[in-house]
Amino acid sequence: MAKQNFSHHPTICYRPIQPCDLEILERIHADIFPIRYESEFFQSVVHERDIVSWAAVDRSQPNGHSDELIGFVTARIVLAKETEIGDLLRYDPSKPDQTLVYILTLGVVESYRNLGIARSLIRQVIKYASSVPACRAVYLHVISYNVPAIHLYKKMSFKCIRRLQDFYLINGQHYDSFLFVYYVNGGRSPCSPLELLIAVVSYMTSGLKSVAARIRKNEEKTAKWPK
Ligand code: ACO
């Protein structure tokens, strides 16, 4: 991946999104997403109404631009049992108030891409989710053709657990989405029969390999010292 050439060395910092970010936040969303977001959404983000967010800014920018958004991530805390992936968590009946963090939007302006900014923003979300004891996972939807985002989530060890057909309707056309999950605080999904079988087979294979290695070692010893 080509790295961006800057006339200055960017000094990227992360902070919460504030009311003064409203205009630029709306502009970047309009520029980089094929979906239009309601103004109510942006109001909720900047006023932190049920939404947590982080902004990336370049402190080395001159002329009063050093606090201007160049990237962002927005997320909402939701009750696990009310989501489509509630059934995929290791359910603890004594804790019916388990939560999840749902990533709503993530974006980096084009000239700042491939610098690891999205990765850092996602790390902030994971760190936050891990700090909430009731939280069991971070999850999100991504449109099936968004290769950079899919690579990013895979690289960050998110698990793609579902493909949802015709999830998005954009300009009259349907597109599938992938559902990615990152478990935190022991919220791993319960073992499926297939996963159990794979675990047993790999355990047996490694056991057999070590027995075979021991036999081979003994044979080598006997061959070296025949008498
Ligand atoms: N092609 C392939 N893989 C990519 C690309 C690309 N163009 N860009 C990023 N990646 C992957 C790579 O695995 C990369 O790791 P590597 O450099 O070690 O190979 C990893 O992502 C991390 O890259 P970052 O530099 O942190 O990503 P960046 O800051 O450039 O932002 C993003 C990536 C957010 C997808 C950016 O391209 C963007 O804003 N796109 C438009 C908006 C968008 O698609 N947002 C995500 C939608 S999903 C959602 O909002 C829930």
Automatic annotation (TrEMBL):
Enzyme class: transferase
N-acetyltransferase domain boundaries: 12-182
Source organism superkingdom: Eukaryota
InterPro entries assigned: Acyl_CoA_acyltransferase, GNAT_dom, NAA60-like
EC number(s) per entry: 2.3.1.259, 2.3.1.48
PROSITE patterns: GNAT
Reactions accelerated catalytically: N-terminal L-methionyl-[transmembrane protein] + acetyl-CoA = N-terminal N(alpha)-acetyl-L-methionyl-[transmembrane protein] + CoA + H(+); L-lysyl-[protein] + acetyl-CoA = N(6)-acetyl-L-lysyl-[protein] + CoA + H(+)
Record's keyword terms, sorted: Acyltransferase, Chromatin regulator, Chromosome partition, Transferase
Family: Belongs to the acetyltransferase family. NAA60 subfamily.
Name the record gives this protein: N-alpha-acetyltransferase 60
